[in-house]
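As a warm-up, study this chain.
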Amino acid sequence: MSNIIEGFKVDVPVAELGEHFQRRIEFHRAKVGDLEIKIGKLKDREVEAKNLADDLSLRTHAWGGLIGGDPVEMFEMEKRLHAQCADYFVFLSAHLIRDTVYRLTDNDLVGLEFGSKAVRDGHGTTLRYIPE
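Now compare it with the structure written out below.
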């Protein structure tokens, strides 16, 4: 008789989880820095219209077309989201328990940004994955 396993679970040692969290903190903080530069250039009108249009088009595609309005406000919103993500991973890092193995579900893996990002609706349903 074969074993029956409910759902998908992965055991991740705390050291590996901490390293992953640190990479996610660095990633999101770098995005905040990049966006600050873009916002500054946009405000100073140093950005060519084509480059801005390409950038906005990529974000519109990645976010499911939920973008409109002032480009500066859009970049500010994206910057806030990345800052919140960095803060989230800082918080999680500070609360890891030493000498522990964390059992993560597929939803945990998505929420903790292992692999691809998931776009979810307001009810937690995964709509599609976006590679980084």
